Amino acid sequence: MKVILKSLILVIFLVAVSEAQPKVVSFKKIRDFLPSVELKGFDRNKPEGRTQTAMGFSTSEATVRYIAKNYVEKDSSESEQRRVEIIVKISDVSAIPGSTLGLSYVQDYVNETDDGYEKTVLVHKSFKGKETGTSGAIKTCNLEFVVRNRFIVSLEVHGSDNRQLIYTLVDSIRLSDLEKLQPEEE
Fold first, then answer.
1. CB 169 within 8 A of CB 37
2. What is the mean pLDDT of the chain?
3. How open is the CA angle 18-24-25, to the nearest 5 degrees?
4. How far apart are CA 129 and CA 107, in angstroms?
5. Taking the CA of residue 85 as centre, how many other CA atoms within 13 Å lie in the half-sphere pointing to its CB?
6. Residues 155, 132: Cα–Cα separation, whole Å
7. DSSP 27-96
8. How many secondary structure helices (H) and strands (E) does the chain include?
9. CA 79 – CA 25 distance, rounded (Å)
10. Cα separation values, 107 from 40, 69, 75, 89, 128, Å
11. How far is CA 113 from the centre of its chain?
12. Which residues of the chain have pLDDT under 50?
């Protein structure tokens, strides 16, 4: 009897949460905000996306990948070429309470090690986020920031620590329009 009662309470809770939660923007609309700029030496893959609901919470995301043809950094003295990949993702996580708090309210900081760093940044003087990078044997650089406490924009570079790749793509995203994007009414 207790198991049935607990299950009934859980079902009622999940139904109440799913009816009260905000609607997310369809990945098809988010996809239009992914960068479409051409990067020299890179092929841009076709964008992908999904909108899903699990345990009463919905998310929506669109992703595009840039794959290097034969990209080698100008200052590289290595004889072998590294594969470089860039992943850009925009996610609507507004239906998950508190999901953007980690980036929205983080204190300003800078952490550095011999082969990497992590710091808070302000993208386009408006959007608080975090930039990280490693320059050791495995080179990476990443940028993640929040737009209107609804969208998490994430850019990851694997195989290079060239920050300019990230910021070239960020500059091509229409952030002021993304900020205004709303889900369709049913």
1. yes
2. 84
3. 155
4. 10
5. 8
6. 11
7. HHHHHTTS-----TTEEEPPPEEEEEEETTEEEEEEEEEEEESS---TT---SSPPP-EEEEEEEE-TTS
8. 5, 9
9. 46
10. 36, 39, 34, 24, 10
11. 24
12. 5, 8, 11, 15-18, 75, 79, 186
Question: Amino acid identity, residue 20?
Answer: A
CB 104 within 8 A of CB 146: yes
**Amino acid sitting at position 168:** T
71 bridge partner residues: none
Which pair of structure tokens corresponds to residue 76? 């590289």
Does the model's pTM come out above 0.85?
Answer: no
pLDDT in tens, 20-39: 567 899 999 999 999 999 99
What is d(CA 48, CA 64) in angstroms, rounded to the nearest whole number? 6
52-69 tens-digit pLDDT = 888 878 899 999 999 998
